[in-house]
């Protein structure tokens, strides 16, 4: 009996040593595939880890997300300061600074921050800044991120202009994340051609708001239009016709008393619908 227990213990020890069990990282997903799909006789499989991260994490990469519906100004300014100047502020710290150095009574009255409030707070940090009015070409050629007011989805909003490339304007939106507009669309929603810049020496500029490959993976407007308006491009009767072609046909007796073909044989198209469990 002792020999059996000892043998079992040794088997367990060697098994655990042979197959080292490592803690799986939370972001790892494992998939299994055949070693050689051309050889059916090979049944060996291997597992490969793939590291993933939530899409929301990349969507708000480099952006301080606004905590309140009225705080897009403070979130946009924090995003610009952290991503371009290199500060490490929270939105709450920026809000406190705007309230302290800005027009406090007006801020409380309108429940929002203005470019003047931003200028005063940035000045208190020892930086030069200012609000300007210019053309779209000015926004592009100055080659640095800027806070721009837009009128979008029925409300006025502050976002951070990041870059312009191949006819698209890329912005850091405190509410929606890293998004882009085509050039004409941006011009339409840009409020009064206003921009807010912070002056930073070239050697001190940070590049946390620089474009990355993930920013460029947007859906082209033509593709959005094509599928968003599918009902207009492909009427329902046409789609029904396609579905009928792929269905099973059964010869039945017409039981519709109001039909001219009542009592006569008629073909019915039997469509198959599958329900996921």
TrEMBL record:
<protein>
    <recommendedName>
        <fullName>Peptidase C39 domain-containing protein</fullName>
    </recommendedName>
</protein>
<dbReference type="GO" id="GO:0005524">
    <property type="term" value="F:ATP binding"/>
</dbReference>
<dbReference type="Pfam" id="PF03412">
    <property type="entry name" value="Peptidase_C39"/>
</dbReference>
<dbReference type="GO" id="GO:0008233">
    <property type="term" value="F:peptidase activity"/>
</dbReference>
<dbReference type="GO" id="GO:0006508">
    <property type="term" value="P:proteolysis"/>
</dbReference>
<feature type="domain" description="Peptidase C39">
    <location>
        <begin position="66"/>
        <end position="197"/>
    </location>
</feature>
<dbReference type="GO" id="GO:0016020">
    <property type="term" value="C:membrane"/>
</dbReference>
<dbReference type="InterPro" id="IPR005074">
    <property type="entry name" value="Peptidase_C39"/>
</dbReference>
């Amino acid at each position: 009996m002792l020999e059996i227990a000892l043998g079992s213990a040794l088997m367990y020890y060697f098994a655990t040593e042979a197959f080292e069990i490592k803690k799986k990282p939370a972001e790892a997903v494992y998939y299994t595939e055949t070693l050689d799909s051309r050889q059916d006789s090979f049944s060996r499989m291997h597992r490969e880890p793939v590291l993933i991260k939530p899409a929301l994490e990349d969507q708000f990469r480099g952006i301080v997300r606004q905590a309140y519906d009225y705080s897009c100004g403070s979130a946009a300014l924090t995003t610009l300061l952290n991503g371009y100047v290199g500060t490490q502020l929270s939105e709450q710290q920026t809000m406190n600074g705007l309230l302290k150095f800005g027009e406090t009574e007006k801020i409380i009255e309108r429940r929002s921050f203005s470019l003047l409030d931003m200028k005063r707070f940035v000045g208190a940090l020892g930086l030069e800044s200012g609000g300007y009015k210019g053309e779209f070409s000015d926004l592009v050629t100055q080659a640095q991120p800027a806070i721009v007011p837009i009128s979008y989805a029925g409300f006025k909003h502050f976002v951070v202009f990041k870059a312009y490339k191949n006819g698209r304007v890329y912005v850091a939106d405190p509410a929606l994340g890293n998004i882009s507009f085509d050039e004409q669309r941006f011009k339409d929603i840009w409020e009064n051609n206003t921009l807010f810049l912070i002056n930073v020496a070239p050697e001190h500029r940070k590049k946390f708001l620089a474009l990355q490959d993930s920013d460029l993976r947007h859906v082209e407007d033509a593709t959005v239009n094509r599928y968003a308006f599918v009902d207009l491009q492909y009427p329902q009767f046409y789609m029904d016709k396609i579905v009928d072609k792929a269905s099973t046909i059964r010869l039945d007796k017409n039981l519709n008393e109001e039909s001219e073909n009542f009592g006569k044989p008629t073909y019915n198209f039997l469509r198959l619908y599958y329900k996921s469990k």
